Amino acid sequence: MSLKVEPLDLQRADISGSKWQEVRAEELDIDNVSLAKTKINNVNMSDMSLNDVNMGGINISNANMLGIGIQHANFSHAVIDHVQLFGTEFHNVVLPQEGDGNYNPEGQYKPVSFHNCNLSNGQFNNCDLSNVEINACDISGLKINGILITDLLHNK
Asked: pLDDT at position 2, please?
């Protein structure tokens, strides 16, 4: 396929409804642009940097997100389904603090939940697990502070 090379400098332009097909658009600099309701299919976005973006309501499917980094993000009410998380690390995951947009002074938040997940060999360090409920889970080998839970349950 022969491509027509034509750098564009669009400023204060409305290109709503435009279609790009078989376009090479690498190293773009997009600033202060609305891409609301845009559909992106079969696109290489590797090494892309997104900063100060509103991605509320976004749907990502069939995506390779290997090595992705997400910092200072509001993931409230996110649904993550059929995802491989091996080697994934979560740091400083907190409830909203006073001054945050979703802060509730009564502390009433929808609980974080895991359903049908394999978290075997996972580690929780220095985490607030108060009021956590574990139901219908395989807890073989589960330890809290080095003590097997099965030993604690049998010694009741």
From this structure: 80
